[in-house]
Each structure stands twice: as C-alpha cells, then as structure tokens.
Model the fold of this input.
Amino acid sequence: MRRAFSVPSLLVGGHPFRTSSLYGLIHALERRGGVWFPKGGTGALVTALAELFQRNGGVIRTRQDVTGLSVENNRVTGVEVSGGQHYPADIVVSNADPLHVYENWLPMKRWGKLLNGFRRRMKQSMGLLVVYFVTKRRYTELEHHTIVFGDTFKEILDTIFDDHEVPEDLSLYLHRPSATDPEMAPPEGDAFYVLAPVPNLQGRQDWETLEPQMTQNILSTLQQRLMPDLFEQLGATHTVSPRYFHAALSSPFGSGFSIAPTLTQSAGFRYHNRSPHYQNLYFVGAGTHPGAGVPGVVSSAGVVEKLVREDRAVSREQLTAVQDKTAV
Ligand SMILES: Cc1cc2nc3c(=O)[nH]c(=O)nc-3n(C[C@H](O)[C@H](O)[C@H](O)COP(=O)(O)OP(=O)(O)OC[C@H]3O[C@@H](n4cnc5c(N)ncnc54)[C@H](O)[C@@H]3O)c2cc1C
Done:
C-alpha cells in the first residue's frame, strides 16, 4: 500500500521517500474530483486548446525553433527563430523550461554565474523511458492503469536519483487507454504505453544503445508478469528516452518533469511565472509554479493570464498618468 500510494509523487518527478507529503494531496484531489482522461488522449486536449486559441484570433506557427530572445535593457523586444526570422513582441510567454531559456535564449554574460549556481543547486526530476506499442489482439483483462512493481522499490529509486544508474530491477506503469476510450486502439487490436523511471542525462548513459535493450527488457517483463502472449501479438513499437526530452522538448537534463518537486522547489519556490529579471517575460509549464503534470501546467497558464492582465492594467494607468502630465 505504501508503494502504491507513493507512485503519484514519482509521477510528478520526485523521489517518493524525499518528496514533501504535500503531494499526498493528489490522492485527496483524485478521490474528490475523480481521475480524468480526455477522449482521444492528450493530443486531443492539445488540438482543442489550439482550436480555442485560433477561434479567438490567435495565429500558431509550428516547425519553427526559437533560437533566442531580443532584449533591450530589462525588456524583451522579440523572438528569434531558426532561419533568422524575428518576431517583435510586447510580451513573451515561454513554454520552454526556464533554465533552457536563460541559458540559451538570453545574453549569457549577464546570467552565467547565476545559472552555474542554479545548475549545481537545483535537484532535477528523473528521466523516463516510454515504449509505445500496439498489439494484434485486445487485452480486455487489463485495466486503464496498471503498476508493475519490481522486487525492490527504495533501492530502484536510490539507484536512479542518487547514483544516476539504470537499475536492474524495474518498476513499470502500463497505460491502456482503450479501457476507457476504445477508439484509441486499432481495429480488433490494442494500444499501450509502458513507462519506466530511469536516470536523466546527468547519468551520461548512451541512450541510443540503451533504448533497444531496455525496450526488450521491459516488454519481456510485461510478458512474464501480465501478458503471456505479448511477443506473439506485438505490432509496431516506438521508444523515447531522456535524449528525446532533451533534444525535442528542450529539457536541460532530459528529465521528464523539469526540476524535482522537493519542498524547496515546490509551488511558489519553483521558477516564477513572471520573470524577476525581464519585465515582460512570463513562464508556463512543468518547471514553473505550481508544478508538473497536466493540471499543474494548465494552472500555470491561468496564473500567467492573470499576471499579464494585472501588468497591462498597471501600464495603462501609468500611460494615463503620463498623458495627463503631458496635457498639463
Ligand atoms: C508518458 C507520459 C505520461 C504522462 N501522463 C500524465 C498524466 O496521466 N497526467 C498528467 O497530469 N501528466 C502526465 N504527464 C506529464 C505531463 O505530460 C507534463 O508534465 C506536461 O506535458 C508538461 O508540459 P509543459 O508544457 O511543461 O512541457 P511540454 O509539453 O514539453 O511543452 C513544451 C513545448 O515547448 C516546445 N519547445 C521547447 N523548446 C522549443 C524551441 N526552442 N522552439 C519552439 N518550441 C519549443 C516543445 O516542442 C513543447 O511543445 C505525462 C508525461 C509523460 C511523458
């Protein structure tokens, strides 16, 4: 039971034996509010938010990597993207990890010392190895969520968080969305992902070599413990590891949930939603207040919306005051 109840803190990126009991609230919230799954998966949630934004006049440009922010004194004046294009901006809200933004998008000279301190002091969440796979038959005997515990638990976590090594014993989370939403699976088949906590890139493993090895180990464990005919039924697989989180999602250490949710890196102690250094730069996402996971990340966007409204109101008042003076 103790293992089972410590999984939610692991799934926001913390070592359960060191994460504040604050995160026990997740259980209370889930009991009260229920556990929700968006029909069509997380992608459907992203599509719906994009449509809402566009319906309100927003324009989205994809396939353009942000490479830098232009600044003037303590204001951000625009966004530079790959290919050299520059978008002027009154305000910038970044969804990329704040450490990545300060290290890569802003003038390093000014932040170098501060950032090195940050890098050393801040505790990072662990990495994730995720194997997405489909099967030719349906596994109706499996629920939407299954946790497969290894023989040990604390030892696995210490190996990952302290030694930054890949443990021999594995604890797995198996996701079968078709239990709730049958359309997530191919006709007559089934769709899953299985997730294993692993060290982040501070472990310096060669993930290109490890990915196929671990995929095989993890699927073998599932075959032994849950799905005896898995290899017979297996279709396509796709594996992502910390190198994907680093390269594709700009996670500085390839960690799954940005900085770890220790007490002194939780809630208001996470990266602030309003940059303390640039007046018109804001942050949303897992590394920021209030924290990782879809509800936390969506809440961070709500907080930024409030801050932007407040800040814009102030500047409008200031503007009026300036205009009044000019009039006098
Ligand atoms: C397998 C898995 C299962 C999960 N399950 C759950 C769950 O059941 N419930 C839950 O609440 N949470 C879950 N989570 C956690 C949740 O998905 C994350 O905490 C959340 O998506 C983080 O959101 P984010 O906006 O901070 O980061 P991201 O979703 O990574 O968004 C950051 C965005 O910034 C973009 N970006 C980065 N750098 C650049 C750049 N230079 N130029 C342009 N764009 C850039 C990236 O492309 C990306 O789209 C899960 C995570 C994983 C990996």
The beta strands are 66-72, 75-81, 86-88, 92-94, 127-135, 145-148, 172-175, 190-198, 234-240, 281-283. The radius of gyration is 22 Å.
